[in-house]
Specification:
The chain is mainly beta and about 160 residues long. It has a single domain, classed as Substrate Binding Domain Of DNAk, Chain A, domain 1 (Sandwich). About 10% of the residues lie in helices and about 35% in strands. The chain contains one helix and nine strands. The strands form two sheets. A five-stranded mixed sheet has the order 8-7-6-3-9, with no helix packed on it. The radius of gyration is 15 Å and the shape is globular. It starts with 8 loop residues before the first strand and ends with a strand. About 25% of the residues are buried.
């Protein structure tokens, strides 16, 4: 039997929507990547909010972690800045690799919940997903391609 993700892993976009990085029921281990960029000219950091759940609005999902990305080259908004590589392992752990420049070394980060995700909380996320299953169907704009460039705000 193959292990699969029990919930979708995503990031919050600047508009507050969930951008699904790893959809629910994806076989583990898995690796997915996307590129994020700044939402404003000369932005000095990018706020990355990692979510767990099936809801289209990021605030309705469980906030798994917050990461502040810094030390990248300043420039115009919309230019590719940071490549993120999300890795899910069969033991249930997640990691993210951050690459600031093409060809540069990738920094490895572990995704650790901002608050403890107890079994009860995990069951609530699952129950909520089942209750709102109809609302959670893709609307055609929810899932990006792996190469899509996503503008994110500073934190």
């Amino acid at each position: 039997m193959t292990d699969v993700t029990k919930h979708s892993l995503g990031i919050a976009s600047g508009s507050g929507k969930t951008i699904v990085v790893v959809p629910k029921d994806t076989p583990l281990p898995v690796q997915r990547s996307l590129t994020v960029t700044t939402a404003k000219d000369e932005q000095y950091n990018i706020g990355l909010i990692i979510t767990l759940g099936e809801r289209p609005l990021a605030e309705e999902n469980f906030q798994l972690s917050r990461i502040r990305l810094e030390d990248f080259d300043f420039g115009s908004k919309g230019e590719a800045r940071v490549r993120l590589v999300f890795r899910g392992f069969a033991n249930g752990l997640w990691g993210v690799g951050v690459q600031y420049k093409e060809g540069a070394a990738e920094r490895q980060l572990s995704i650790i919940p901002s608050v403890g995700l107890s079994r009860t909380e995990l069951e609530k996320v699952q129950e909520k997903a089942m209750r709102y299953m109809e609302d959670n169907k893709p609307s055609g704009e929810a899932e990006p391609a792996q190469t899509e460039i996503i503008p994110l705000p500073a934190i």
